[in-house]
Amino acid sequence: MLINSIIWDFDPVAFSIFGREIRWYGLMFATGFAFTFWLCLWMMKREKSDVTIPDTLLFYLAIATIVGARLGHCFFYEPAHYLANPIEIFKVWRGGLASHGAAIGILIALYFAAKKHKKSFWYMTDRVVIFVAITGVLVRLGNLFNSEIYGHETTLPWGFIFVRAGETVAKHPTQLYEALSYLVIFAGLLGYYIKQNYKPKEGVLFGSFLILLFGARFAIESIKNVQVGFEEYMLLNMGQLLSIPFILAGIVILWLAIKNKLPNFPKPKTVPAKKR
Known about the structure:
By secondary structure, the protein is mainly α. The protein contains 8 helices and 4 strands.
């Protein structure tokens, strides 16, 4: 018997505690941070490096991801609404997070984390992108559990009918497309890191990540439903437009890394010699 489509009627609520719903999306997010800490600690031990780095990264990344993703959604997708109602920005529980905003927030956080631990920015980014890739897998699974951010109508046998979103025809499960893409990227980045004996050439992983992840995002966005009304009239949707600068940045960073021309920043503070 051939399968024409998959009926998706998954309950987004995992369980309740004292009347408060705990959703699978939140659990996926939390699992991503937990995995980030564990993987970073494993890396630091392998490199015989500073084992306090995972603590700093977990704290910085948690704040940067949530704040960046929220502000990204507010100002990239619905600026008029949130500028007119700024208090709504703080109501994160109502939904509205943008991965491109999270990416910007994370990059800013990594600069300060690198400065704190006297590491180069490229050292930090090369390792964190591995965590981000696997966390992206979990977040997109959370989107699937929420029956959100899916694609156009399809007749392919793996199309999902998202019952809880009110759909009656099969749609592209773009959440799964992205999750699988990010999983492949994670495996490739981690494999390269291990193959280089835990000492990859600075900037190569970061540049490759930007090209691959945002390239995949750009491609998948072409079959994804628009998130806000104004995108209906755009040649490229907001997700694609926001991906282009990251792809271009990745190309430049990778080229500079290969040519050994990456700038060294943040520059370590020079301590003046003591007068005798």
